[in-house]
Design brief:
The complex is a heterodimer. By secondary structure, chain A is of the alpha/beta class. In chain A, about 40% of the residues lie in helices and about 15% in strands. Chain A contains 13 helices and 10 strands. The chains are: A alpha/beta, B mainly beta.
Chain lengths: ~350, ~150
């Protein structure tokens, strides 16, 4: 048993936007070129007429999985508390939405649903019987800036402990965690930095950052900017956070949660060739190597599903500057297969 | 996201009433979110055309093969969905429509999608954000500009 590879169709959102790939094309890419079998979707983006998929779609979906011998691993679901607009959705209503999404997941053959960091544990508890009945596990995402280690002083610093306590207390096998590799981000990604700089209104600030970002580390840069530009607005401050934030978790933290992991979001922004190693790729902003080392050490044998996000930072210019999602995911799988040791 | 592609380049045209009089203009839009949205969450647009702002009250939205609806009507479509793949049309009321030629349109979409409960939830029920301020602007928070030609 080893770590398995998959792809979240989120990675191909731009191809879908420009109508160059539909979900069947994505499945074919997994089978023919990536030689992996794990499928993850964003429920609303893939299911036509969500939340009311037709019988025809369900059959078509399951047939296509069978055609390529693919596995429906995780379906990502959401919590839009303003859906009804005349009131904020209460916990019982949120649980109804969750239970309904679990049923759709079961119809489509998914083993898991991924719910968001901010879904209250009470809502998950209310949906647990449905998860058991349909044998679909609920995985709560650990997304940056949420850490793995318990730290009540940090945003989301109680979440992982809350899920672990819940699982240990109830003994359920139907609740767990979905860590996003973004929690191991060690540096801002080039594509995100360049997007922010291209779209910065304050040209003096932009020049200052461009001049100094390579010489200073994140904290030094933030301090220098604070001194030079005391009247920064909140958007610009958010941008600075990209440099100073640091990783939400350390690679070895993953060892604490391995039995609770349902699947992993293989978040990445840009795959570049490793200097001196033709044909081998890395995302220099995320520490995959050490995380996968600990996952292997801890005996993790579930899926890592690629979640390419760098395209979004390259859509503010012309069509000629768009990222190549298909190539990025292929490179990501070169890296995954190599680090897993296939 | 999709900053340069939220409006289809060749989609700007005038809208005429039954007597052939130009009563506004329209253009084709896509959703600035990777997942689409429940239609009720769509809260209108910040729109400026050649420097003039056209508030939400002058806008209608056409999607899912139904006639253009006001954003007060859209708000009630709690089980209808604007799918990620689907193009929609924004209609803007403007007596006489637009002159033929180039026009510069600034756009920010307001979709009240969220990832769970937030401190401002109750306030947004009573006072939904006015498009253009960034709040509720989803995945594309800046105002994006498009140079479009009306033929």
């Amino acid at each position: 048993m080893t770590i398995k590879r998959g792809v979240s169709f989120y990675s191909y959102q731009q191809e879908q936007f420009f109508r160059r790939m539909n979900w069947k094309d994505m499945m074919r890419e997994l089978h023919d070129n990536l030689h992996c079998d794990g499928v993850e979707i964003i429920n609303e983006a893939t299911i036509p007429n969500y939340p009311f998929p037709s019988q025809e779609f369900i059959y078509d979906w399951r047939n296509e999985l069978a055609k390529y011998n693919l596995k429906a691993v995780t379906k990502d679901i959401y919590l839009d508390v303003h859906q009804f607009r005349d009131h904020v959705m209460n916990y019982r209503e949120a649980a109804e939405r969750l239970m309904y999404d679990i049923k759709i997941a079961a119809d489509m053959g998914f083993e898991n649903v991924r719910c968001l960091c901010m879904v209250p544990i009470e809502v998950i508890e209310m949906a647990l019987d449905t998860a058991v009945k349909y044998n679909v596990r609920i995985g709560k995402e650990i997304h940056a800036p949420y850490p793995i280690k318990y730290d009540p002083s940090r945003e989301g610093g109680r979440m992982v402990a809350e899920i672990i306590d819940f699982v240990d207390r109830t003994g359920t096998k139907h609740v767990g965690l979905v860590p996003d590799m973004g929690i191991f981000q060690i540096a801002p990604s080039r594509v995100n930095v360049e997007y922010q700089l291209r779209n910065m209104d304050d040209l003096k600030l932009r020049d200052f950052i461009e001049k100094n970002m390579n010489e200073m580390d994140g904290k030094e840069l933030a301090a220098a900017i604070d001194k030079e530009f005391p009247d920064m607005d909140s958007m610009q401050k958010r941008f600075l956070g990209m440099f100073t934030r640091g990783p939400a978790a350390q690679p070895e933290d993953i060892l604490e949660i391995i039995p609770y992991i349902i699947s992993i979001h293989g978040k990445f922004y840009e795959m570049t060739e490793i200097p001196g190693k033709p044909g081998q790729y890395e995302d220099v902003s995320i520490d995959y190597e050490n995380v996968i080392k600990y996952l292997k050490q801890g005996g993790y044998n579930g899926y890592i599903n690629s979640e390419y996000e760098g395209q979004r930072s390259q859509q503010d210019r012309g069509i000629e500057n768009l990222a190549d999602e298909v190539e990025e995911v292929r490179r990501h799988h070169e890296m995954l297969a190599r680090l897993i040791g296939e | 996201m999709f900053d340069s592609f939220l409006i289809r380049e060749d989609s700007l045209e005038n809208v005429y009433d039954e007597n052939g009089k130009a009563v506004g203009f329209k253009f084709a839009v896509r959703i600035a979110d990777y997942r689409g949205a429940f239609l009720s969450l769509h809260n209108g647009y910040y729109i400026e055309c050649d420097g003039v702002e056209y508030p939400r009250e002058l806008q209608k939205f056409e999607v899912n093969g139904k006639p253009p609806r006001t954003f007060e009507e859209i708000k009630k479509c709690v089980w209808e969905h604007w799918d990620f793949d689907d193009e929609a049309y924004v209609y803007v009321e403007k007596e006489g429509g637009l002159e033929p030629g180039k026009h510069r349109i600034g756009l920010q979409q307001s979709v009240l999608s969220q990832y769970g409960y937030m401190p401002w939830d109750e306030d947004w029920v009573k006072n939904p954000p006015v498009p253009g301020q960034g709040a509720g602007a989803g995945k594309t928070r800046r105002i994006c500009y498009y140079d479009l030609e009306l033929i």
